[in-house]
Amino acid sequence: MNMTSHNQPSIKIAVVGDVHDQWEAQDAIALQSLGVDLVLFVGDFGNESVGVVEQVAAVDLPKAVILGNHDAWYSASAWGRKKCPYNRQQQNWLQDQLEALGDAHVGYGYLDFPELQLSVVGGRPFSWGGSAWKNQDFYRDWYGVNSFEESVERIVAAAQATDYNRILFLGHNGPTGLGEEAESPCGRDWHPLGGDHGDPDFEAAIAQVQALGKQIPLVTFGHMHHRLRHTTKRLRTIVTTSSEETVYLNSASVPRIVQTETDRLRNFSLVSLEAGGVASISLVWVGNDYSVVLEEFLYRRPQPVGGQFVSRHSP
Fold this sequence. Notes:
Elements: E1 2-3, E2 9-16, H1 25-34, E3 38-41, H2 50-57, E4 63-65, H3 78-82, H4 93-101, E5 110-113, E6 118-122, H5 136-143, H6 148-160, E7 166-170, H7 200-211, E8 215-221, E9 239-241, E10 247-250, E11 257-259, E12 264-274, E13 277-286, E14 292-300, E15 303-305, E16 308-310
Parallel strand pairs: 2-3, 3-4, 6-7, 7-8, 8-10
Antiparallel strand pairs: 1-2, 2-12, 5-6, 9-10, 11-12, 12-13, 13-14, 15-16
């Protein structure tokens, strides 16, 4: 972490996309080798994969985590409970995950990071996405939340309680409002194609927090994988920006670990915060020797040229 001329720290953040049981001891070492100041995990570690979550909880870096729909796979719905592979009278894998993470889990909550002069606020945990209020009994029993409106209140209350005016929002699924196309960051890429599959409570909460005067440089999430189901000719739109200078990052590059003929590569999204805002975002692949083998720049902050801003945003 370096200090900028604006007297705000220059911060390097790693965002870990949907894990889906692809987490190894080498991942924690890779994060250390990347020299990051903060790690954000967007969830879906596996189908209530307690062992993976315990490894993530042990990562010795400042971190914040939100759990995804797969992390409540056997608990959130009647369908999932019927498929539950463990005795629910004797075990509760969802509770085990929450206890392992402790304060690092920011779903409906927040964490302050004094050294970084920012706070991380979590959206609705365990989200499946979409415009319907799903798993009503689950959210009622676990969080006392019965509607999108009550969910908005929980998220905004967390943001109001932070020590810092600069907030990073962390969700499993992204907010509505980022596009209706199948290729949009939260676009429906299954038939019938198209439509916004974001979380409406997340969008409403972000707008309310912005109206309170909070600065939100980054909103990051996963759930909607980069590889599209209906075409192999392109990937999902990964980064988009708003008029409020908020950058939205979908980090779900799945699979996040791939084996080549000569190497084993694991991906992370790297976000650089400078002068309070997002300066750049890249997707990096780290090899067996913990060096960056591949780096794809996804976003660079527009630079003023001759009094005009020139965008360097790469879709």
